[in-house]
Specification:
It is built from 9 helices and 12 strands. A hairpin with a 7-residue loop joins strand 7 and strand 8.
């Protein structure tokens, strides 16, 4: 294990699934080993001030990107920070929090790759890119259930934010090592496949060998192919929503055999906290494509400890 923290970036638009993905990765790595930072805490203005000046939270001018970059640089060298806290329930700021980084740091938010200085701080960079129709469903559900908005208010805010999403959020996709795209196979938004775009910017597991090792029943649910993303060659790994627990555990076992250190962080018996998401009525559901995604990203973080 290196002495400095290993830093993962998870960037995506509002309600793209960043917190859900982060939660499971932290479970694989061990919550006691992980420090989670949300870049929403670096908003320059509170909710009322943003409304008064007409800026959305997605605009760089609405965020202290210089302080965020400074704090990420300190975290990368293992130094503590005094982090601001933005309260999504009140729309105001709470007292700052003293943060001493753990072995792993996950930084998730809207603008994490917006400056070169920030991008240079990450060992692994992930971008979340669900279909916009699905993200709209997730945002309406979250903001009405957890943040006190009406559906009409959420839709109006989405429309207001769209120009900033197009100009500032989506272009960050180009900097990611892994692009995660969950998508539904039916009208049920909780029944999701995942498409993982794997760029050659970091060394990925040899999935060709892994899938060849797998049983015949394993292969229909997990597919590997070649494609181009933004003009460059990439691998595409797809996992269907009907992947079973046995198939997930089989892939986990093969990954653990490739990287024995992973055995210290996840269990071959399966971790019930991995792959969990909230259904349309608030129920807790289990998604094996989500679990495999969380496991793969945790794999990359552990691999980064021994480059």
């Amino acid at each position: 294990m290196t002495h400095r923290p290993i830093i993962l970036g998870i960037v995506g638009d509002s309600a793209a699934g960043k917190t859900t993905l982060t939660r499971g990765i932290a479970q694989v790595l061990g919550p006691e080993n992980v420090t989670v930072i949300c870049t929403d805490d670096y908003h320059r203005y509170d909710r009322q001030q943003r409304a008064e000046i007409g800026l959305t939270a997605l605009h760089p001018d609405c965020n202290y990107l210089d302080i965020m970059q400074q704090h990420q640089t300190l975290l990368r060298t293992g130094q503590p920070i005094l982090k601001p806290i933005y309260n999504h329930h009140t729309g105001a700021f709470d007292p700052p929090e003293y943060i001493n980084p753990g072995k792993f740091v996950i930084i998730e938010g809207l603008l994490g790759y917006s400056t070169r200085g920030c991008r240079d701080c990450y060992d692994v960079k992930v971008y979340l890119a669900p279909p916009e129709t699905l993200r709209y469903q997730w945002k309406i559900k979250r903001d009405t259930m957890k943040r006190g908005y009406s559906e009409a208010q959420v839709l109006a805010e989405l429309e207001k934010r769209e120009p900033d999403s197009e100009q500032y959020i989506r272009p960050q996709r180009q900097w990611a090592d892994v692009i995660v795209s969950f998508y539904p196979t039916t009208d049920d938004a909780s029944n999701l496949n995942v498409r993982l775009t794997l760029r050659p910017t970091i060394p990925h597991p040899d999935f060709t060998e892994i899938l060849n090792q797998g049983s015949e029943s394993f292969k229909p649910s997990v597919r590997l192919g070649l494609d181009r993303d933004m003009g460059k060659p990439v691998d595409l790994l797809e996992v269907d929503s009907h992947a079973t627990l046995a198939q997930v555990q089989e892939l986990e076992m093969i990954l653990c055999n490739e990287m024995p250190h992973l055995r210290n962080f996840c269990t071959l018996n399966g971790n019930p906290e991995i792959g969990q998401l909230v259904g349309t009525t608030g129920e807790i559901l289990q998604s094996y494509p989500l679990a495999l995604t969380q496991l793969l990203i945790a794999y990359h973080m552990i691999r980064a400890t021994n480059p």
